[in-house]
Amino acid sequence: MKYIFKIAAGVLLTLLAFSCSDFLDKAPEEDITIQEAFLQRNYAESFLTDAYADLPMEIHFTDMADINPFVLASDEFNVPWPEKFGKLMNRGAWNAYNATGRVWINMYEGVRKSNIFLDNIHITPLSEEFTAKDKDRWIGEAILLRALYHFYVMRVYGPSPIMNYAADVSDDFTQIRRQPLDSCINFVLRECDRAIPLLPMRAINNRQTGRMTAAVAYALKARLLLYRASDLWNGNPDCANFKDNAGVELFPQVKEEKWWAEAAAAAKKCIEECEAAGYTLYRTADDDPVQNYYRLFLDRYNDEVILGRNCGVEPVPEKCGFPRSQGGWAGWNVTQQQVDAYEMDNGIIPITGYTSDGSPIIDSRSGYKETGYAEEAGPAGRWPAGVRNMYVHRDPRFYATVGYCHSFWAGTSSTDNNFRNKEVTYYSDGYAAASPDHPEDYNRSGYTCIKYNHPEDNMKATSAVRVKYFPIFRYAEVLLNYVEAINELENPYTMEIINGDQVTVERNTTEIVKYFNLVRHRAGLPGITEADARDRDEVRDLIKRERRVEFACEGHRYHDLRRWGNDAMTAYNRPITGMNVKARSNDRKSFYTVTQLNDKLTRRTFSYKNYFYPIPKSVLDKNKNLVQNPEWN
To answer: How far apart are CA 186 and CA 194, in angstroms?
Structure first.
């Protein structure tokens, strides 16, 4: 093993049959071996830092949609560009030949880097600047990174190879097989437990923000076990006969309630440890419900984000989401189904369904109106005067997530009133209309995702773009994970968590109300009551709606619908809808008509095989012992 990157690249090519990135060809110095590199603390740290590079840049859910196609592939989102991988998923036009392998490639590349680091860090000498505690922390980071990368693979492929060693070029890689799902899950859980005592609960300083912590390990366990408890992975009869070519069953055969108890216990432990470490739901100084949610995604180093991916200043949300008049492509389109999921600010769901002709069924108690226009602006500028009444008095998170017709784009880094606090419309002759040279760049639904836009961002006048980050784990998720898990329990359980610690969990209506309402109240919404919490089915529906709204455009929706079983089949076979963007500004009434987006580029289809990704055919061709997922052959 002579050269650090030559050997690493060779292992990658042999194991995964993928080309390596350019940077892998460049060693710190051309003649430095791995062992020599790890004898220097700065090189060892650089190697660990590089292991983080494979964390997916999930804010790129269009430009790099092969890394995160999940927002686009869900029913909350649409883009006008048919070549994006998420659009292929929408149309059912993907297969083992054209399906992106970037998740498989990048995650196992991250695993490989972590393994090499763990095999060599023991030789890095200690010093006053690099103590045994520092080394243990680095080891914990690499262990947890390896676990997280395995989870990302499992999330879309299901049972996967477990790579807990640094493979050598002399290895027989045809012996690498997909492991049963529970073996994969137990591996990740054990790795988390190994990492926890080596890591601090929070980053030790801002420079370390974005690195692995014990809180990340607790949050990963809570999410993984919630997935294990859910229908897709818990005795799913559709996967009952899925075996490898040696006859090994790859999926659990029996549905067990105990997995909900495991998920509840892991989430409860995470909540306890995070509370003690100072994690909490983010709130602004004036506790404005819109800003509580909006600023959460803009203010880095806040106390809600357990792990976030630094995305720098590359203006992906701005380029893809801003209207053309503001320098963007108007392509990040929120669907009408997502808009309809937002309650009124009184906590009542305004639209409870649709008639056969597509007309909404409105709950008259909600105060929702489809017709007319607002005579006055909303409190704290939530909505401007003159907007359609359908956008008035909605869940405050709506105003922090969705740009709608006649809403305003701040762009406050400019002093030019042509580009600052600009009212944007989505009529065919409005500010979001397509340009003659790019007729495909126009808004298809009448709504745009604004969730990651900083008020100072201005693509047209100043080209100012503020640093972005994408939340991978945040405290609100852990709270809702816990509520979902205890809601499914029929019996009390006492579960062992870590190092002999035990947690007792049961379906407790007081706990359901407490933790569910923490998320609701932060958003300025009424909470649920004990009476509401006594109805298991009602709570389940409330949780599904709350997750849809709270985690909009964060990548959760696609996986939530899959893990809930038949929910994905229903949602992903339903045409998406939006406003009638073909209407002109002199025909506002026509614009506010719910319209199906169901042409050959926007129609949706989903079948049983789509619950899991196909393993790329190029990978299977090089290892006959890696069996394909069901129905992808």
So the answer is: 12
Query: Which among 161, 181, 127 has a CA at the least distance from the CA of 620?
Result: 161
Cα separation, 105 vs 618, in Å, equals 12
Dihedral sign (CA 483, 485, 487, 491): negative
In sequence order, the β-bridge partners of residue 577 are 596
Task: Categorize the per-residue pLDDT at 6 as very low, low, confident or very high, splitting at 50, 70 and 90.
Answer: very low
What are residue 233's phi and psi, to 5 degrees? -110, 0
Per DSSP, 394 falls in state B
Decide: 11 and 112 in contact? Cβ < 8 Å.
yes
Kindly report the backbone phi and psi dihedral angles of residue 285, in degrees, each rounded to the nearest multiple of 5, phi listed first.
-60, -35
- Does pTM top 0.90 for this prediction? yes
Q: Are strands 502-505 and 493-496 parallel, antiparallel or unpaired?
A: antiparallel
Cα of 203 vs its chain's centroid, Å: 22
Tokens of 3: 């050269």
The DSSP line for 353-374 is: EE-TTS-EEE-GGG---SSSB-
pLDDT-based confidence at residue 20 (cuts at 50, 70, 90): very low
Neighbours of 551 (CB within 10 A): 18
Residues sharing a CB contact under 8 Å with residue 339, sequence separation 6 or more, in sequence order = 398, 402, 404, 447
Average pLDDT over the chain, rounded to an integer: 91
200-219 pLDDT tens trace:
999 988 888 899 999 999 99
Quick: pLDDT tens for 182-204: 999 999 999 999 999 999 999 98
Report the interhelical angle of 102-120 vs 41-51 (nearest 10°).
160
